[in-house]
Amino acid sequence: ANSHKWVVAGNSIGGLCSLGVAARLKEQVRGITLFNCAGGMTGFRYDELPFILRPILYFIQKVVLSPNGYGGKFFEDFKTRENVESILKNQGVYGDTTNVDEELLEILLGPSE
Questions:
Q1: What beta strand segments (E) does 1-113 contain?
Q2: Which residues are CB-neighbours of 16 under 8 A, at least 6 positions away?
Q3: Which of 8, 19, 22, 31 has the fewest C-beta atoms lying within 10 Å of its C-beta?
């Protein structure tokens, strides 16, 4: 038997994946390290929301954030190269901001273009 245990690490949504791995492989994992954790992605339960708030949430999700509603316009405005670069450099995402270069921006923005 292998006596070595792993430390699982995940960045952003990878943090959620790391938690899943650790939960499934409890005997093989001795620790978890999470960076820039993505929250709110663990399965929202509408039945836990007070009945009076459900129409408000529906409106926000289906109208405000919808790609066909205001959400598409918001995303287009938000995902500009300048905005993403500013966030990466000025919000503490990268300790060494010289790592924020054209190649990184292309990797991040490419899938949304």
A1: 6-11, 29-35
A2: 10, 37, 38, 41, 42
A3: 31
Rounded-to-integer distance, Cα 26 and Cα 75, Å: 38
| Token pair recorded at residue 12 | 């952003």
∠ Cα 11 14 20 (to 5°) = 135
Contact between residue 89 and residue 97 where contact means Cβ atoms under 8 Å apart: yes
**Tens digit of each residue's pLDDT (9 = 90 or more) over 3-45:** 789 899 988 777 878 888 888 998 999 999 888 775 554 456 7
Q: 29 forms bridges with which residues in the sheet? A: 6
pTM over 0.90: no
13 within 8 A of 19, measured Cβ to Cβ: no
**3-state secondary structure (DSSP) of residue 113:** coil
